[in-house]
Amino acid sequence: MGCQMNVLDSELVLGQLCALGYEPTHELASADLVLLNTCSVRQHAEDKVYSRLGEVGRAKAKHPEMLVGVIGCMAERDHEGLRRRARHVDLLCGPGNLNEIPALIEEIELARREHGKLTVALALEHDHSRREPAARRTLLYDSIEALDISRTKPMEGSLLQSYVRVQRGCDKFCTFCVVPFTRGPERSRPPGHIVEEARRLVDLGAREITLLGQTVNSYSYDEGTRVTRFAELLARVHEVPGLERLRFVTSYPGDFTDDILEAMRDLPRLCEYLHLPAQSGSNAVLKRMRRQYTVEQYVELFERARAMVPGISLAGDFIVGFSGETEEEHAATLALLTRVRYKNVYMFKYSERPGTLAERRMIDDIPEDVKSRRHAELSTLQHEISLAHHQALVGQCVEVLVEGYSKAAVRAQESEQSRGQETSWRRSDQLTGRTRTDEIVVFSGSPSLIGQLATIRVTAATALTLHGEVASGPGPLVSSPTV
Ligand code: SAH
Ligand code: F3S
C-alpha cells in the first residue's frame, strides 16, 4: 500500500524472501507467510490495513502455522496499537529495518520450536536514529543499504520501469505529515551505489529509471572532500549505457536550484516532468503547514521551470481542509490550479496524524462534508484543465515507452481464455505506454513494440488518457508538448 517508496520496498523484501526459498502466491489461504507493507500518511490507509488484517486473521484461523507480519510505516508508527488490535500479528518491522525480516522470521520459528508459543518479533527504528550516536546510526544504515545494493531481477512485475532510491527519510517536518516520524531522518545514499544499482537494472532490462526521495532535490552526499548534489547525480545516472529515460520524484519547492532545471534542459534522456507538491495556494495555510516557501516563490519557480525547460509538464499535490482553512484560503488553491495549469494533481482531504505538530497544536476543525465539497471543486477544475491539456495534443506525435497491453486488452484476453478461445492478436492488440511528460497513451500496435520506444500520433483525448496510432511517416515529433 502507499507510495512508490513502498512499491520499491515490497520488491526488495520479496527479492530477499525469494533468495531464502519462498515463492510468491496470490492465494491467501495457501500462504505460509503474509506481509502487509503499510502506509500511515492518511487514516484511510491505516483503516484499510486493519480490514485486510481481519481477512488474514480468518485465513490464519484455518492455517495456524501461517506467519503474519505488518511492515512499513504503520508498524513503525503504531506497533503498540497493532499488537493490541491484531493479536494474530507475529512480526512488526519498520521501513528502516526491512533487511532484518529474515532474522525476524528465524526468531519466530525458533521460539515456536522451543517454547511452542508465539512471540512478536520486532524491528523498529523508532525515532532513535535522530538521537543515537553516529557510529550506531552508520551501522544501522549500512545494513539497510545492503538491501538496496543486493537487488536483483524483480520476482513479480516488470523491470522496464524501475525505481531507485536516492534518499531515505525526511527532515522537513511539515506540520501535517507523519513521514519524518515513520521513515526517520533524511539520509542520502552514496552516489556510487545509486549509479551501480541503475547500471545493474539496465543490464537486466530496465529502460526507464525513476529516482525516488521524499524531497529528492535536496539530495546531497558529503564524502568529506567533496559533496555530490542532485544535479550531478542526475548527470551520472543519465550516462548509464542503455538507459532510455530518467525521471525523479518528489521535489520540494523549497530547495529547488537552477542546476536541476539546466540538467532537465540539457540531458536528452532526462524527462521534462516535475512533480512539485504545493499543498495549498494560500500563504497563511502554507505557514501553518510549515512549508518553507510562499505561493509567490512557488509560482516563480514553475515560471522559471517553464522558461528553462521547453515543454515541461507539472504535477502537484494539494491538501484540502487543513486546520482552519477558510473559504478564501480554499479559493486561493483553486486560483493556483488555474494559474499553473498542471498536467495532473493528486488531491487529498486533510487527515490528522497522531504525533504531528498539527495534531498536537491545531484543531482538525473543517467538517468532513466541507472537505468533500472542496475536494470535489478542486477535482472538477483540474478535470477541465487536464482535458484541455490532453486535447491540445490531438494531431501531434509523441514518444511513448510501450509498457504492455491496455487494461481493455487484458480483459479481452482473459475473457477469451476463460471461454477456451485462442487469444487472437487482432482482438488483444491494444497497447499502452507513457510519454516523456507522463501522459498515458492507448493505441493499437504489434505486441513486439512492448518494451520499445514508439512514435504515436494522438487521435483523441479524455482527461485521463490519450488515444493514438503508430505514426507511419515522420510526424512533427513533439517529445514534450505544452498547452
Ligand atoms: N514528499 C513526499 C510526500 C509524502 S506524502 C512524496 O514523496 O510525495 C504524499 C502526499 O500526501 C503529500 O504531498 C500530501 O499532499 C499528502 N499528505 C501528507 N500528509 C497528509 C495528511 N495528513 N492528510 C492528507 N494528505 C496528506
Ligand atoms: Fe512529508 Fe513534508 Fe517531508 S510532506 S515527506 S514532511 S517534505
List keywords for this structure.
single chain, 483 residues, alpha/beta, Rossmann fold, pyruvate-formate lyase- activating enzyme, OB fold (Dihydrolipoamide Acetyltransferase, E2P), 3 domains, 4-stranded parallel sheet, 16 helices, 40% helix, disordered C terminus, binds S-adenosyl-L-homocysteine, binds FE3-S4 cluster
Describe, in plain words, how this protein is organized in 3D:
By secondary structure, the chain is α/β, with parallel strands linked by helices. It folds into three domains: 4-123, Rossmann fold; 134-391, tm_1862 like domain (pyruvate-formate lyase- activating enzyme, Alpha-Beta Horseshoe); 397-478, OB fold (Dihydrolipoamide Acetyltransferase, E2P) (Beta Barrel). The chain has 16 helices and 19 strands. It has helices at residues 4-19, 43-62, 73-77, 79-85, 101-115, 134-149, 179-182, 191-204, 230-238, 258-266, 283-289, 295-308, 327-340, 357-361, 368-391, 407-418; strands spanning 33-38, 67-72, 91-93, 121-123, 161-165, 167-168, 187-188, 208-212, 220-222, 227-229, 245-249, 273-275, 313-320, 344-349, 397-405, 430-435, 440-444, 453-461, 465-470. It has a five-stranded mixed beta barrel. Strands 1-2-3-4 form a four-stranded parallel sheet, sandwiched between helices. The chain has a three-stranded parallel sheet with strand order 5-8-11, sandwiched between helices. β9 and β10 form a beta hairpin. α9 (230-238) runs parallel beside α10 and α13 runs parallel beside α15 (368-391). The longest helix has 24 residues, at 368-391. The chain is globular. The relative contact order is 0.08. Residues 479-483 have low confidence and may be disordered.
